Amino acid sequence: MVERIYTSYVSSLKADGSPPDTGSFREVCEHLRRDLIREMGKSRLWNAPPAFVGMSGSSWQDGDALDELLHDCYISIFVRRLKGLRNQVKLGRDVAGLVRRNIRQRLSELRRKVDPIGYRVFQLLQSAILRAIEAGELHVLEGDPDIRNATVLGFGPRAGPDDACLELADHVRAWNDELLPELITARGGAVAPIEERLTSLIVGLKTAGIEAFGFKDLIDPMKRDVRQRWHAVWANEVDEVTVVPPPDPAAGADRLGDLHRCVSVSIDELTERKKTKDYLWKLWIFLRGLALDDEYPKGTRTRPPDVKISDDLDIPRGRLPDLFGILGRLVKACLAGVADRVGEATASASRENPGTPAASRRGEQGEQP
């Protein structure tokens, strides 16, 4: 009966999604908390700072950070994805597995939104290494076989963890010369060729005399180099079109993180078509990338010509002025730090760029991944 707690709860929710009583709400939250902690442990998030997934607090043990994450997961699963859960219940299926899968997905979404560049590099490096392992060209010598920071990898059975090379920065800088900007911008079918090329480059470390390496020693310099150079791949033919400046990084990482979370949530809440939101998300990653380089001049920010952005991000050129306008309003509202301003900007953007009918939009929000 305990296993079907989520199924019973979904069945008992009222038409508007509200719980039937306080007791059932508290009970399902306790089960959700336990499953959340379990999934955080599996993904190595429990020992990471809450800021890793965009939450405030010094550690998960202080309570408030975990409560904030629990609330976020509840909204994501039992509000935004309620339609999908109800469909499964109508088919007579238990939704416990689906709820846990949605917890994992939400944790991944939060990691991506807080650090989209770092998360992207992690995904591609992990996939490339798993390809090399499957082909028998690389072996896990120590640590998690799913490839995490503590994993040590080697090219032959005689290699050992003590042989791991610690200095890989020069290698990854040369890789990024070749792989950027597609390393960050590639989507859909264009990702596989990037993974294949990255696999080839990793395997090529063997010819450079490297017998073994730690995953952390590979990913850390690669993420650092991508962040520092992200704006440089757009440097050719830069015009003087000013974009909305992000907070000064010198004011603190928390403020920049707060801005990113606020704009990301605002994009998610727009009542626009999914493709429009995808375009906005691409542009926001691009603009945030400009702000991540500490060497980039503070103050006025510039962006490449629209034709270059259109070609590189695969966004129709005619949509760019409108999309930049929406992002500008959301960023200004978030910088002001006033929730009402965010709501006004969101509503204004939706009025000026009407999307799908309300019923269809609600359907999109309830779709399962």
Structure report:
By secondary structure, the protein is mainly α. The chain has 3 domains: 2-113, no CATH class; 118-234, no CATH class; 241-366, no CATH class. It is 59% helix and 4% strand. It contains 16 helices and 6 strands. It has helices at 5-12, 22-42, 64-80, 82-90, 96-114, 116-134, 169-179, 182-185, 191-203, 215-229, 253-269, 274-291, 306-313, 320-336, 339-352, 358-366; strands at residues 139-142, 152-154, 164-165, 212-214, 241-242, 302-303. It has a 4-stranded mixed β-sheet with strand order 1-2-4-3. Helix 2 packs across helix 3, helix 6 crosses helix 10 (215-229) and helix 7 packs across helix 10. The longest helix has 21 residues, at 22-42. It starts with a helix and ends with a helix. 27% of the residues are buried.
Tell me the β content.
Answer: under 5%
Helicity range: 55-70%
Overall average pLDDT = 77
Largest sheet: 4 strands, mixed
Widest β-sheet, arrangement of strands? 1-2-4-3
The number of strands is 6
Shape: globular
Jot down its keywords:
369 residues; 6 strands; 4% strand; 16 helices; globular; disordered C terminus
Short description:
59% of the residues lie in helices and 4% in strands. The chain has 369 residues and is mainly alpha-helical. It folds into 3 domains: 2-113, no CATH class; 118-234, no CATH class; 241-366, no CATH class.
